[in-house]
Fold each of these.
Amino acid sequence: MLQILKVSNFKCFENLELPITALTLLSGFNATGKTSSIQPLLLLAQSIKSTGSINKLSLNGNLIKLGTPGEVLYENSKSKSIILGVKTAEAEISFELNLEKRNPNRSCDIDSINFLDVETNSLLKLNNVNELLSVEEKSASSLIRKLKNIIYLGISRFDYEELYPSPNELDLVNADVGTKGQYAPWHFSEFGDQDIPISRHHKDESAPTLRKQLIAWFDYIFPGSEANSYHVDGTPLVKLELRNSSTGEWRRPSNIGYGLSYIFPILVACLLAEKDQIIILDSPEAHIHPEGQSKMAQFLSMIAASGVQLIIETHSDHILNGVRLAAMKETIKPKDITIHFFNKIPRSEQDVAQITSPSIDHQGNISDWPDGFFDQTEKDLSLLSGW
């Protein structure tokens, strides 16, 4: 499991060391670095997936599109290099990127790789990942595989369609439903009879299959709702159907509430993910009623407790409170929850720190409430009541 994300000279960060745990929430003001803090993970994953190694960093691909090297360099940087790194309990790896060399495909050359094996305390400085894998095969390949298998589900969804595509990647990443959820119907149809780890089972559903467990969790968040998908004979296409009661008619996604089709890929990816796999979610609360948002957060807490690492960007106090409830109910241990609040970027030494990290205890209490941290409801109510 990743423990720390490190970046230097990347976008709005001169230097950043961001602790992450089984469940990490990124919250805060707009344009303060929440998305930028996780983009290095997407860049590394994208580069490994596209080339099978990392000799160049692909700035533009299926996961993320950032433009040119100059656009990702910290604006006050005194050098033309960027460092991206991650740390686990077993190893630490960092990539130094050279932005001096221009590449027509808008990629960045990797000048060097620093790899630290924690067990042996040996530090290696290498030129490429293939050289690294040949020297430290076990710990290095595990970390590279972890990065390669990252799943990213953005806030946008695949346009309403009657039929959905099948993934065409030769080396398909487990549970990768696509950045817009476009492959979720295929996964549900293809792996509907696959058993899900018991730690992810809904308490009221004894059948272990993906199909039964997804419907149980679907009903938990949207009472009465169900999902179904199946391959269309003779084509690579898949049809998705939804309904809001067990006796209702099956409908195409465009003819039923958008929230159902929005959460469907989240449930598929989370239930199918392997232990230690990383899922990055942008705004899982979108298009969901507040009660459903709280339940979604409790579901995600359960998934994190089962061994999947989740990094979630959110603006929802209902997501936060759902996680607090999960801690109080002992669904997840407080030590496995990390919250980062991104404040406005400091412009002087007198400004508050850009990132503060409140903690949650076993009762769901928050240790610190910095100004702007999910407090707008209280501020508005105080004005309405004349306090």
Amino acid sequence: MKNILIATDFSSNAQHACKIGVEIAHKMNAKIHLLHVFALPIVNPELPEFYDFKGYYDIKFSLLEKAIHRLPIGDLEFKIHCEAGISFPDQAMEICEKENIDLFVIGHTGSSALEELFIGSNTTQILLNKKIPILSIPLSFQWKEKMKLAFAYDNKPLNNAKSIQSLRTFASKYSDKIFAFHVANYNNSEEVYTHLKQFIPFNEFELTTQVDENVNDGILEYVSNQSMDILCIIPRKHSFIDRLFHVSYTKEFSRYSAIPILTLPE
């Protein structure tokens, strides 16, 4: 990973995500890109009011400069991006493409990353992008040097080489191995293992079949019972992960611990 983008709106959850993003950048020896997107004030053309765009931009840019200098950047290279726009997801994805971003780190306000996915937000739109790995971090999560990385595998081909490499790199830095799991209504571990080892070296993961009639329940149970710290998923059409993103399931999260979600492009 050479370029890491971190989004901030100067809130407490964004500041928390910034600190973690910088820690990851140090671990990966990556360049930091700090992004703030602000909405332009609505101006009534019928009223004689003057809108000072440059003055407004300068204020935001100054806040962004102060934010980057409060972070433990050290000798890492960094760049700040202050953008005006209506759609935060669109602006963020534009920067990702322009700067060849390898990982986008974003904080969120839900009690868990999955909860926010179900109720809809800017975070949801970004997590469902098809191009960039995204790490969504809840405010309550405490980052650690070593963590358990769970990978929800849907027993389908992993054709995106960049996504596979991102998963392997992240796991090599923070987890002893990739804790892959598949949710099914019967134990099909041998079949799933045969598929998965075509894409990830067998010595880098262990595989579990979580037997459950309900995929959502299976994911929640595995992550909770196995004390996982990060959940990695690949959202794609017509898979159990796709159904996970489009089913209202917020009531379950009262019993679910808040952990980061790492989404990888299909």
Amino acid sequence: MADSPATPSASKVTHMIHPSDPQFTRPLAVRGGQGAPVTCAACGCRLGQTGEAWFHFNPIGGRDARGCRVACADAAHDLTGRPVSVAV
């Protein structure tokens, strides 16, 4: 029998690790030294980024994604999760 291994040796394997694209990185709030999603300071809902502002995920008629009626559901928020404008 031949002494050739069935798999290539580890020294000949090229690893395909690509660096993260900085275009796809999202700003995160920092809490206790750890990155975390941006959440609303008033009600705790997770916010999604739209341009420079952050909004509640899928707001429907003044309600958040859970269906709760919150005053800031349609308002733009800053990176800290505070509403910067309240919709009327």
